[in-house]
User: Which sequence fits this backbone?
């Protein structure tokens, strides 16, 4: 009975270890930079609605603040910001009440006149990526210069640049400049392989404290995944030792009882000789 209970417990732990709720945060319009006054819609695309996903953010003024708590309007698994402002710049993610979190996206809001429209989500190796340098009040086909990690890549007469067949070497911090209008903020572009992974931008591209918080979340997630396997291993070892002890030391064959039987046999033998 005890062995059956332990085996059932092992099965349940293994099942829980393989079952994870996941969500993916998307942004509409799909961009990492916005002008003040733009409308932005954030959506938690989830696999399990029962997980209770909540959209949260870190900014320079607030930490882990959820949608509807002084910013945005929450509706089911979405959050809309009708009039985004500079203080809304920060890191956004979906968080389950059970602990797991989604990918993180870094949004930058500027009061300036130039932004760089670049992918807010990681891009796949081999894909083509188009960057658009645009102003708030003029057409988006003005000549622009594009920079990566502070170095000039090229100048484009139409204000947009396409990187064909991106690779990991294209990953970095991008910005653009339109003569007479100004320079955009910088945004990090992540390039990923066939497996979808989230690469965190460098610390300089994130609001204060967000980088350390993300590392804490990653440690917690690793512990959540690792602990069930550790518990399963310990239970299996315990079960094995319990069964081994039962095989080698049966209660009826304890040393004390065996010694008592030897004494009785000696007494019987002695009486027979007398």
Assistant:
């Amino acid at each position: 009975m005890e062995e059956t209970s332990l085996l059932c417990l092992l099965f349940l732990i293994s099942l829980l270890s393989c079952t994870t709720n996941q969500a993916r945060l998307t942004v509409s319009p799909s961009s990492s930079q916005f002008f003040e006054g733009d409308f932005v819609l954030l959506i938690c695309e989830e696999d399990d609605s029962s997980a209770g996903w909540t959209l949260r953010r870190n900014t320079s003024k607030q930490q882990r603040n959820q949608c509807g708590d002084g910013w945005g309007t929450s509706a089911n698994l979405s959050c809309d910001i009708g009039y985004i402002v500079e203080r809304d710049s920060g890191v956004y993610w979906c968080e389950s009440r059970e602990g797991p979190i989604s990918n993180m996206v870094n949004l930058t809001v500027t009061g300036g006149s130039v932004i760089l429209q670049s992918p807010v989500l990681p891009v796949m190796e081999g894909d083509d990526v188009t960057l658009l340098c645009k102003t708030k009040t003029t057409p988006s086909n003005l000549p622009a210069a594009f920079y990566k990690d502070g170095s000039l890549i090229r100048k484009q007469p139409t204000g947009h640049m396409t990187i064909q067949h991106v690779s990991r070497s294209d990953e970095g911090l991008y910005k653009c400049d339109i003569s007479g209008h100004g320079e955009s903020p910088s945004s990090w572009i992540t390039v990923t392989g066939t497996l979808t992974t989230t690469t965190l931008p460098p610390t300089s591209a994130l609001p204060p404290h967000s980088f350390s918080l993300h590392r804490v979340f990653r440690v917690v997630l690793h512990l959540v995944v690792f602990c069930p396997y550790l518990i399963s291993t310990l239970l299996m070892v315990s079960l094995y030792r319990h069964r081994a002890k039962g095989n080698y030391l049966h209660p009826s064959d304890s040393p004390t009882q065996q010694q008592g039987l030897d004494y009785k046999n000696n007494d019987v033998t002695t009486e027979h000789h007398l």
Summary: Residues 112-194 form a domain with the Immunoglobulin-like fold (CATH 2.60.40.10). The mean pLDDT is 76.
